[in-house]
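Issue 218. Parser rejects a valid record. Input:
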Amino acid sequence: MTDPIENERRQVVAAAIRRQDGPWTKGRAMRVLRAAGIPGPHDRAARRVLAHHHSTGLLDRHETPGRRYYTRKAGS
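Output the parser choked on:
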C-alpha cells in the first residue's frame, strides 16, 4: 500500500502536469511539491513521482547525456 503522503505528492504533481506545458524535471517537480506545502525530502520524492507518472502513461521520458526530463504524453 502506498504512503498517504506519496499519494498526495502524486496527485499534486499530476494536476500541475495537466495544467502546465513544457519539460518536467526533478527540480520543477520539487518546486511544485514545496509550493503545495508537502513535507520533504523532495529530491528523491520528485524523481519517484515523475517515474510513477511515466509508468502510468501520463509522461514520456527523454534522456540526453547528463539530463533526464519528462513531457506530458499527447492526449493525457
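Fixed in the parser; the record now loads. The chain has a mean pLDDT of 93.
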